Please model this.
Amino acid sequence: MADNEIERKELRILANSLKERILVDQELGAPLSWLKTGKKDSVVNTFESLPIVVSKNEKTGGDDAAGGHGAMLERVRADLGDCRRCKLAGSRRNIVFGEGSPEAELVFVGEAPGGDEDLQGKPFVGRAGQLLTKIILAMGLKREDVYICNILKCRPPQNRNPLPEEIASCEPFLIRQLEALRPRVICALGSFAAHTLIQSDVPITALRGRFHDYQGIPLMPTYHPAYLLRNPGAKKQVWEDVQKIMELLGKKKAGT
Ligand code: URA
Model:
């Protein structure tokens, strides 16, 4: 493909994701809010200070009218369709939309499907996924209690890092997914998830361990389970991070 043809294609992708992002913002009632904020490192120290979104126990008539979390999620999935918005469509085997309870109070967001996930169409089912399942169990929860998804819905070839245009294409669907779920807390697994969701480029080592704000929802960044497989010493820090999540959810800390 000629250079200017590639540029035109990239511009088309960017224009389409911008259009989708504007539609999402309109749905959320905060048109173009992201243009005003830019990069930020929004630390939330007290949850009282959050502009709290409607929680699971405080459903509005509007939310019910929209059909509840499950129906809203299904609409997002339907709109994603057999997605061809970026070039990952050419190499993926399955779209990995996400799975878990539509009523989940806790949502884990990872980076992108790997080989096992691409094959099965499910998030976090490979080695890193098995470790994530263990972390969830250690938190006193089951996989079915939470919701698990990724920044990208398709596997990048050879598990390379997501490209900005791929994130831009996929992000509107993640935003809608999170809006449909309205969890009480989000756990961002690894730098890509944390940086994308809180629009920060601060290293994960500095972000982890404290809550940040995602659209009024407390978000805890922590290390990706794949990083833990390579650096088991970091499990202690992840355990500290997830205990803070459990405290926030009002669950008794496992082992205490
Ligand atoms: N790593 C991720 O970030 N997501 C998955 O679904 C699997 C591995």
Remarks:
- The radius of gyration is 18 Å.
